[in-house]
Amino acid sequence: MQEKYPRIIFFGPGRKAQVPAREYGNKAAVLATMANLAIPVPPGFALNVSICEEYFRNNRTLPPDLPDMLQEGIRWIERAMDLSFGSGRRPLLVSVRSGAPVTMPGVMDTILNVGLNRETLRGLIVMTGNPRFAWDSYRRFLEQFGTSVFGHNPKVYRTIVREAMAGEDIDDEAALDFHSLQEIAGQFEKVYLRQDGRPFPTDVGEQLACATEAVLSSWMSPRAEQFRRLNLVREARGTAVTIQAMVFGNLGAASGAGVAFSRNPWTGEPGLLVDFKFGAQGEDVVSGDMEVATQDEFRQRLPAEYSALQKIAAQLEREFGDMQDIEFTVQEGSLYILQSRSGKRAPYAALRIAIDLWQEGIIFRDEALRMLENIDTNTIVLRRVQSANPPLSWGISASLGVASGRIALTPSQALRFPREEGIILVRETASPDDIEGIDVSDGLLCARGARTSHAAVVARQMGKVCIVGCRDLTISPERHLCRIRDTALYEGDFITLDGETGAIYAGVGEVVNERPDALIGILQSLKSG
Ligand code: ADP
Ligand code: MG
Hints:
The protein is of the alpha+beta class. Helices cover 39% and strands 23% of the residues. Among the domains are: 256-342, D-amino Acid Aminotransferase, Chain A, domain 1, CATH 3.30.470.20; 347-377 and 515-527, no CATH class; 382-514, Phosphohistidine domain (Glucose Oxidase, domain 1).
């Protein structure tokens, strides 16, 4: 059969590519569009979704032409970057990214820093003059490859890192020093021997093939199936694979990784909303495990990158005619965009954004109306808690609304409580693995995490009230107890989350409703044309 679309497509500087999302996934389609617009994206290539279909049709066998395709793709990136995959002098590292036609944030696998072994590690040190960075990248790769590709238990890795952090008396992973990182990497290498004896593949071609297969098979992971079921994703063929040159947010003090919304996804207010972590790679921000810098700190320390990001966000809004959710990395003063998609938003924000985009001339009247088609504007209210008692504490609000319910400290406990009385899932940090528990809950409260963490994105999308990064919250699941400042709360006790202010109240709070009358007035005049 003659295929209409090639099995592999390339994108990057100097290459105009037509990349339909249906064939190469949303991620690659947008990356190629950005490259065409001269927005800085690392060069890369994507494998057609049909390869994933074939892989499962043939009982999880990789297609025979895969090695050639990977080789051809890598050659393109090598030329574009003037680096060489597997080289001990100027090594190229790549990310192997999942990406279906429908976005599934954090649900499938992505593996970063592919192409590292002891030899290329030396090359990376020579090339950058930065051994701390090289060891940091290596230990990250060992952990991600071990857990995602070989299915190692993540706890084994996390314990080693935690012990190293305790040894240095620090609580931020990004602050680990060179010696600890080297020590951690050495211990990680040994994990491969202990876990199931399958050795770490030092051959970079083998690393790439294994990572590609892991990404393909993550399409059928229980987590991915659950996501599709709960989000009613139909017409799903499989995932594409995007392989792209790495850029490094962990290279130095003027580097980092972040997520930006082009407008506020809860209130719709115009202007960037940024979570950024200095000295980190992408997953550190979205995983929800780590503290991030404030937006002001990011703007003050990297003013040029901040304004570049503002310009690009505006450009992307015009191109795609919608508010954008953007993943980016700054590598020693250079900004790179790694992903952009329409941002998930609360109904109130949807109303404001559609009207603003129309008034700013970014979209037409009927596009604005279409954006609001599935939203019942009569039911849009800003809900706030009115309480005689002060809040127990505040966290970072990650989605609007008010929710009250019984505290559940585990997803399985959430599944056991009756739904009618409301359920609030209270976690140290939530992961997309908790999706079933989030689904039955009315709200999610996390001790750690950022507004842009995957779990927050998922919770928001499912219409749940979500507060993250509540530093006063400590949890002892085995004692069925949590503490917010001095107040002890047992599993089954009631609390209330106010998504407007990020406040957490004991008991069931009284709610007041405010309607966005001015915006609804504009909408009515839009409708009558
Ligand atoms: P997901 O679909 O789960 O968001 P991604 O493929 O977007 O997974 O990747 C996970 C994280 O790694 C994101 O923060 C992304 O920006 C980052 N990332 C992916 N590829 C690269 C790369 N080539 N260089 C630097 N960071 C990357
Ligand atoms: Mg992503």
